């Protein structure tokens, strides 16, 4: 047993991720992340950790094993050779669970209080037809940050942080079929809370009846028993419900074909469906270092325990 | 009529007799025998017996046990007498002797009966007393008073202990599940709003991408002249596309000089696009990321309700 464990450890330390750390199209460094938890964490939070790992796919360690005796240094040591740039650390305190988002190896660290959270399972359970095909996790999500433009320093830092957590896209070369997920962070000024959502993106052609769309998508022989003529299949609209009042806000025209259904020539509607997890975060603290160092910002009012003059001038 | 009447009387005899059977075993066997033997003079005897048995039955049925005990004594006496009278008719002495023996037994029985009756009374009194006592409807039920207090205390203790334990468990669970909420099955206004925001973001990105990729369709990046134009076009079109609806994107999330109070001049930054990912040097060097906390060079004018949309995704 002991020997076996020794062997495993050895293989674990070895940086097996030999994938390129640099994007071969844009030449940017691809950010990678570890999601783990510190301290004793209840089951639901463990589930949340798993959900977050899935969200961070593909550039994350989905099966990262952590032990009680692992400290931050262990993770840092592994992160170096693996090219891991971000840590997402979950922890549990009596008041609430906390999420720390940190850049490695030098920081900064943002500490969020998780006011509320729902797991991906909960979200899927709340939906009539949950949609979560495994292919959408092959590409990293887009990120949309909204409401952060209030000019406060810590908010800017948050935006920078979250932008850099996912690989950047090159607008000229990006293949839109790879954009299948989106992470939304919406800052609410009144409550000072950030809503964290995770959606899947679905494109549907406009002006095509549901029947035809299904036919093209599924490639199955349609049931024509109830029809008098084959032409009825095309001409009859069926029940034209399902919020066909597609607002123009959600329609896009594509330059390239996207799948079989969404051709370049037609217009398509963007539909989002939540896949979870969802969180309500509040930024509590910003530290200079990796879970250490001077405090740049705290929510609790006593701002700048290691005060910087610049900060005071700014405020 | 005669036979029928006798039979009926026989039945009448039988009934009370049967009742008495268990109590007087000695006389029972004898009487049965006698009945079988006597055929002729049974009418007279039967009448007597009938009265006797009737009386006895009444006494027996009456609730008063004391009187019953007396009656029992009386009846047994009478029976003896009767038995003696009937014994005259019998030829053999054996029966008489037997009878006498049985009568002795009867006498013993009488004594026992009185004793038993006394015990019975005592028992009855005790029983009725117990039955009359009103039981308090607490958890314990009827328990001897000596232990009542102790047991009650113990039970109460257990109860409180269990309560405390349950509360602790509940509290623990609450702490563990703190913040965990199940989403509603319907979309509330907030979620609708969030979805619309996200949709807007995606639409913006898709449109920008299609614009950019449409523009470069005609140009071949292999020629150097085209490549240059391409580079310029890319940035311009994309930036203009992004800025159009917002007025200005909250652009400078760049890793440049974040916290410095002085608004430094921004000479070198004019050429570069405001959005960090579009810069050539973006994320290539760590030095810039290291000083993320320096002040941005321009004070950024951000629309209040604008969505500083930043979209990034991976290569393919």
Task: Kindly describe this structure.
- Chain A: It holds the Pfam family Brix.
- Chain A: InterPro entries: Brix, PPAN-like.
- The complex is a heterodimer of chains A (about 325) and B (about 325).
- Mean pLDDT of chain A is about 80; it is low at about 15 and about 300-315.
- In chain A, strands 1, 2, 3, 4, 5, 6, 7, 8, 9, 10 and 11 form an eleven-stranded mixed beta sheet that branches.
- Chain A is of the alpha+beta class and about 325 residues long.
- In chain A, about 25% of the residues lie in helices and about 25% in strands.
- Chain A has helices at about 1-15, 45-55, 70-80, 120-125, 155-165, 210-220, 230-235, 310-315; strands at about 35-40, 85-90, 95-105, 110-120, 140-145, 180-190, 195-205, 250-255, 265-275, 280-285, 295-300.
- By secondary structure, chain B is mainly α.
- Helices cover about 65% and strands about 0% of the residues of chain B.
- Chain B contains ten helices and no strands.
- Chain B has helices spanning about 1-20, 25-35, 40-60, 65-90, 95-130, 145-175, 190-215, 225-245, 265-270, 285-290.
- The model of chain B is unreliable at about 1-15, about 65-105, about 245-275, about 285-290 and about 295-315 (pLDDT under 50).
List the main descriptive attributes of the protein structure presented here.
heterodimer, A: 315 residues, eleven-stranded mixed β-sheet, 11 strands, 25% helix, B: 316 residues, mainly alpha, disordered N terminus, Brix domain-containing protein (chain A), rRNA binding (chain A), Brix (chain A)
Beta strand % of chain A: 25-35%
Taking the alpha carbons of the first and last residues of chain A, their distance comes to: 59 Å
H-E order of chain A: HEHHEEEHEHEEHHEEEEH
* Strand percentage of chain B: under 5%
Cα radius of gyration of chain B in angstroms: 58 Å
User: What composes the largest sheet of chain A?
Assistant: 11 strands, mixed
Low-confidence stretches of chain B: 1-14, 65-103, 246-274, 284-290, 295-316
DSSP summary, beta strand count of chain B: 0
CA distance, first residue to last residue of chain B: 122 Å
**Structure class of chain B:** mainly alpha
Protein name (chain A): Brix domain-containing protein
Pfam families (chain A): Brix
GO molecular function, one term (chain A): rRNA binding
Domain Brix (chain A): 31-292
């Amino acid at each position: 047993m002991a020997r076996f464990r020794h062997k495993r450890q050895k293989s674990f330390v070895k940086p097996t991720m030999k994938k390129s750390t640099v994007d071969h199209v844009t030449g940017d460094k691809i950010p990678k992340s570890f999601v783990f938890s510190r301290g004793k964490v209840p089951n639901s939070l463990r589930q949340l950790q798993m959900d977050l790992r899935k969200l961070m796919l593909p550039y994350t360690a989905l099966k990262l094993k952590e032990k009680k005796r692992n400290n931050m240094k262990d993770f840092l040591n592994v992160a170096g050779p693996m090219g891991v740039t971000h840590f997402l650390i979950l922890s549990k305190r009596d008041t609430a669970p906390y999420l720390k988002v940190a850049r490695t190896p030098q920081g900064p660290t943002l500490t969020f209080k998780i006011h509320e959270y729902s797991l991906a399972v909960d979200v899927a359970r709340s939906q009539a037809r949950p949609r979560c095909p495994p292919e959408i996790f092959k590409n990293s999500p887009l990120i949309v940050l909204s409401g952060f433009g209030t000019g406060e320093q810590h908010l800017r830092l948050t935006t920078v942080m979250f932008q850099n957590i996912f690989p950047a896209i090159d607008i000229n070369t990006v293949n839109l079929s790879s954009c299948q997920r989106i992470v939304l962070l919406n800052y609410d000024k009144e409550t000072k809370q950030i809503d964290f959502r995770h959606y899947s993106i679905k494109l549907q052609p406009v002006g095509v009846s549901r029947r035809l769309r299904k036919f093209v998508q599924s490639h199955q022989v349609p049931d024509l028993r109830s029809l008098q003529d084959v032409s009825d299949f095309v001409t009859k609209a069926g029940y034209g419900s399902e919020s066909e009042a597609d607002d123009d806000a959600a329609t896009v025209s594509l330059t390239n074909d996207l799948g079989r259904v969404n051709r370049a020539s037609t217009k398509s509607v963007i539909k989002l469906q939540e896949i979870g997890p969802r969180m309500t975060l509040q930024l509590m603290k910003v530290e200079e270092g990796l879970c250490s160092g001077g405090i740049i910002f705290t929510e609790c009012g006593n701002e700048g325990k290691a005060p910087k003059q610049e900060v005071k001038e700014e405020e | 009529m005669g036979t029928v009447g006798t039979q009926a009387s026989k039945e009448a005899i039988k009934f009370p007799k049967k009742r008495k059977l268990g109590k007087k075993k000695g006389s029972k066997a004898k009487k049965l025998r006698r009945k079988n033997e006597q055929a002729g003079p049974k009418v007279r005897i039967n009448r007597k017996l009938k009265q006797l048995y009737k009386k006895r039955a009444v006494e027996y049925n009456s609730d008063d046990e004391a009187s019953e005990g007396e009656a029992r004594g009386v009846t047994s006496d009478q029976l003896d007498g009767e038995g003696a009278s009937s014994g005259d008719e019998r030829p053999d002495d054996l029966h008489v002797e037997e009878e006498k023996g049985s009568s002795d037994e009867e006498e013993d029985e009488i004594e026992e009966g009185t004793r038993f009756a006394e015990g019975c009374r005592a028992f009855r009194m005790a029983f009725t007393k117990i039955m009359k006592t009103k039981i308090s409807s607490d958890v314990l039920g009827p328990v001897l008073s000596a232990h009542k207090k102790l047991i009650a205390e113990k039970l109460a203790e257990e109860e409180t202990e269990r309560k405390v334990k349950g509360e602790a468990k509940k509290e623990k669970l609450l702490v563990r599940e703190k913040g965990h909420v199940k989403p509603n099955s319907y979309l509330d206004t907030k979620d609708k709003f969030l979805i619309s925001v996200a949709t807007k973001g995606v639409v913006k990105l898709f449109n920008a991408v299609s614009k950019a990729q449409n523009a470069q369709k005609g140009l071949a990046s292999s020629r150097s002249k085209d490549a240059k134009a391409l580079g310029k076009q890319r940035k311009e079109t994309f930036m203009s596309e992004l800025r159009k609806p917002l007025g200005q994107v909250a652009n400078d999330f760049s890793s440049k000089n974040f916290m410095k109070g002085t608004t430094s001049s921004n000479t070198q930054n004019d050429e570069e696009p405001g959005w960090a990912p579009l810069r050539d040097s973006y994320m290539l060097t760590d030095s810039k990321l290291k000083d993320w906390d320096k002040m941005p060079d321009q004070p950024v004018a951000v629309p209040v309700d604008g969505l500083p949309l930043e979209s990034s995704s991976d290569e393919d």
